[in-house]
Amino acid sequence: MRVPVPPPERNRPRVNEQIRIPRVRLIDENGEQAGEVSVDDARRRAQEASLDLVEVAPNAKPPVVRIMDYGKYLFELQKKERQARKKQHVNESKEIRLRPGTGEGDMKIKVKHAKEFLAEGQKVVIQLQFRGREMAHRELGIEAIKKFIELMGDEGFKVEQEPRMEGRRMSAVIAPASANSK
């Protein structure tokens, strides 16, 4: 019983009939070197063992093939990828967008959202967008961000990055105080 081979996606190794090089270095099902053999002989030995012939080192001279269960091999690769993804650190951050003319009522609502994000342990990036002639009055942007931080109060956060210009945007980063104490 053969496991159906999934479609060739990503950089999967060649298997069985996909291998077309005349001579290959063979590693048998026990992991022992069988030496350099013809690809037809290697395929025959894989079929006798009811396993697959998998190309494990295509750039070697000659290419290295191994007799193994391809379905099990793919499962092990997927398992390793999942483990690697689990250990990745994902930087959680939310963005709050302001304009230099954002009113106090709107700003209070955005402050409320920012406090919720900080309570969940996420960083908050305050983005202030300038358009047209607003670029001439960058000090208004700094004042708007400082007013936003002032409305936040002193509860459980730290300004991680002071307001900084990046093209037509000014940004500042606020992080929860507990995240900075680690």
- In round numbers, the mean pLDDT is 84
Number of folding domains? 2
Name the CATH superfamily classification of the largest domain. Answer: Translation initiation factor 3 (IF-3), C-terminal domain
The rough form would be described as: elongated
- Write the CATH architecture name of the largest domain: 2-Layer Sandwich
Query: What portion of residues is helical?
Result: 25-40%
The overall strand count is 8
Low-confidence stretches: none
The helix count comes to 5
Helical/strand content category: alpha/beta
Distance between the termini: 53 Å
The ordered H/E elements are EEHEEHEHEHEEH
How do the strands line up in the largest sheet? 2-1-4-3
Strand content: 25-35%
Secondary structure blueprint with pairings:
Blueprint: E1 23-27, E2 33-38, H1 39-48, E3 52-57, E4 64-68, H2 70-87, E5 93-98, H3 104-119, E6 123-129, H4 138-152, E7 157-166, E8 169-176, H5 177-180
Parallel strand pairs: 1-4, 5-6
Antiparallel strand pairs: 1-2, 3-4, 6-8, 7-8
Structure description:
It is built from five helices and eight strands; from the N terminus they run E-E-H-E-E-H-E-H-E-H-E-E-H. By secondary structure, the protein is α/β, with parallel strands linked by helices. The chain folds into two domains: 16-85, Ubiquitin-like (UB roll), CATH 3.10.20.80; 93-180, Translation Initiation Factor IF3, CATH 3.30.110. A hairpin with a 5-residue loop joins strand 1 and strand 2. The protein starts with 22 loop residues before the first strand and ends with a helix.
